[in-house]
Amino acid sequence: MTTIEQGADVSADLTHQLREAIQDAEFAPHQRLIEADLSERFGASRASVRTALLNLANEGLIERLPNRGARVRAITVAEAVEIVEVRMELESLVARKTAQSLTAEDAAVLRELRGGILDAMHEGSLIQYSRLNQQLDRVIWDASGHATAIGLLERLRAQSARHQFRLSFLPGRATLSAPEHVAIIDAILARDPEAADHATRVHLAGIIAVLRSQE
């Protein structure tokens, strides 16, 4: 591997790490992202940090300010709704793909997640519930084998994650969304692509409705 290729790999990995950190609310909206601090935190060169920030700016996750560096871009509710509308098309696609090619190993993971999601809902453990929902999305995405859709979903999820994380803690939200997640899992376990598509759309339409109620 050449030095240029190694540098590209480092920048791609750092871009992923920064995207995950923003998605997990480790950086707040409008928070400045200082190259020197990020270089120290992630053990990367300033050049790699600069490239990663440029990548994230192109994705719309951060904004670069003249003579002031970069900061996390705040996503409006209206933008969040648009993002979920696009996600609906992509997530219904990967749900169909997963239902069509489900392996016994992935089925076992989905059954375990199904039980965990219901347990977390009944126990009122909202942080655990949110974490399991993220795991569910990742399992369905990866099991679909659709690399292009997965790449797009990762970027879109990072942009709207802060809004959806907040929605998870709305009173009664878990009791509504848990059955929707279960319906998606059951459709995939039944290897029914159309039912998986429908259940996914119903779930994301519910998210859109709640987002719009927050405007």
Q: How would you describe this structure to a colleague?
A:
This protein is mainly alpha-helical and 215 residues long. It folds into 2 domains: 3-72, Winged helix-like DNA-binding domain superfamily/Winged helix DNA-binding domain (Arc Repressor Mutant, subunit A, Orthogonal Bundle); 77-213, Four Helix Bundle (Hemerythrin (Met), subunit A) (Up-down Bundle), CATH 1.20.120. It has 9 helices and 3 strands, in the order H-E-H-H-E-E-H-H-H-H-H-H. It has helices at 3-23, 35-42, 46-59, 77-101, 104-123, 126-144, 147-168, 173-189, 193-213, and strands at 32-33, 62-65, 69-72. Strands 1-3-2 form a 3-stranded antiparallel β-sheet. Strand 2 and strand 3 (69-72) form a beta hairpin. Helix 1 packs parallel to helix 7. The protein starts with a helix and ends with a helix. Keywords: DNA-binding, Transcription, Transcription regulation. InterPro entries: GntR_C, TF_FadR/GntR_C, Tscrpt_reg_HTH_GntR, WH-like_DNA-bd_sf, WH_DNA-bd_sf. Residues 8-75 form the HTH gntR-type domain. This is GntR family transcriptional regulator.
